[in-house]
Amino acid sequence: MGFTSDMFVRPISDIKIPNHDYKTIFKTAQQCRQHPPQISLYASHYHLMKRVHKATTITTTCILKEERDRCSSPSFTSHGLRFIRGKKLLSELSTWRIGGPCKYFVQVFDRNQLLSAIRYCHERSIRFLIIGKGSNCLFDDAGFDGCVILNRIDFIEETKPGIYRVGSGYPFNQLGVRCSNDGFTGLEFASGVPGTVGGGAFMNAGANGQEISDAIYSVEILQTDGRLETINRNDLAFGYRKSSFQDMQDLAAIVAVTFKLKPFPSAREQQKEYLTKRRLSQPLGERSAGSVFKNPEGIGVSAGELIEKAGLKGFRLGNAKISEMHANFFINCGSTSKDMIELINLVKEKVKDKFKVELREEIQYVSPI
Ligand SMILES: NC(=O)C1=CN([C@@H]2O[C@H](COP(=O)(O)OP(=O)(O)OC[C@H]3O[C@@H](n4cnc5c(N)ncnc54)[C@H](OP(=O)(O)O)[C@@H]3O)[C@@H](O)[C@H]2O)C=CC1
Ligand SMILES: C=C(O[C@H]1[C@H](O)[C@@H](CO)O[C@H](OP(=O)(O)OP(=O)(O)OC[C@H]2O[C@@H](n3ccc(=O)[nH]c3=O)[C@H](O)[C@@H]2O)[C@@H]1NC(C)=O)C(=O)O
To answer: FAD-binding PCMH-type domain: from which residue to which, for each copy (predicted)?
Structure first.
């Protein structure tokens, strides 16, 4: 989307002339009589309106030019945040290491920054995407024609024994280790999961019979209109890789999650056992996005098993390959998004032909526009 000048019209409060500094306002007005007024003045200036409105206009025009220049440079600051324009590669932001440049990129470290980033996008009708570790996303080689907001809200506080309030950008993996080390059960499975707490809640991450939803006490979310809301677990619905968040029209982002865990002396051993199992059965050192497909429900056979039985383990299409270790992990060996999508579609077709089972993706496609 191109910039138009009216995107940069700002109310006078944003113009760096203090309300009482009439001298500067008059001076600016005198310099720029040719411009028509575009925005209204504050009531306190009303008695000066006739003489001042031209000052407002020209000052705004200066801001427009300044902001347009800033926004077309490789990096610029707005709303107190540093944006990178056109340079950040999505391949650097995804565990699959696939994806072209995004039009804007910004990192947020707390709730207010997240709100500012969303406001920035909202004011300019820029499409935005919140990502955590990008461990479940397939980005396009063409990139993303919007703003990628990288969630780095990564605080953790134990408010009472077994109750943890955690920023949505906190690594899920680390949370699993921390809670198990502290002797609490419920999140042992999280160690080894490469996502964030927010991504985990959004997807209702699970493994080894545990799910994040079983440990959640409440979730703090940010709505697109800027409102913050805390939702109790009882008011949320979860299923296999499914959560209420996926259906919320007004959700901007999950900001923090509070977990309530029970004491369990063997939590640490349990966590280590899960991690060992994961290391033995999953290609963790390779560029993947974890399970590509959800397990089909109600048939008692996993997606990995079906793909293996279809004879596809180790199959390679271009530079995208099905892991020899686990058939539901697809490896990027220098692949494009096109290769990976073709491989995914081919697997779906073969499994459908052979077993009459429709595999459904767990990974999320992020379209470039
Ligand atoms: N069990 C396993 O071994 C593995 C599990 N996973 C799971 O995949 C998920 C990926 O996590 P992560 O890498 O952080 O996510 P990603 O960065 O891959 O984002 C995935 C999706 O989650 C949504 N999302 C991410 N963070 C937030 C947030 N704070 N608020 C709202 N929505 C959010 C985004 O939705 P939108 O597009 O709407 O912005 C995005 O499309 C986790 O559930 C992880 O547990 C991944 C790999 C292996
Ligand atoms: C990796 C993910 O989560 C994983 C999670 O780590 C593990 C461990 O609990 O259980 C799920 O995998 P999974 O169902 O493939 O679990 P596994 O224990 O590896 O395999 C299940 C069964 O399939 C068989 N199997 C698996 C892979 C394979 O190539 N061939 C095969 O026959 C295994 O022998 C086993 O009998 C989650 N995947 C899904 C889609 O639910 C993820 O979500 O990205």
So the answer is: 97-264
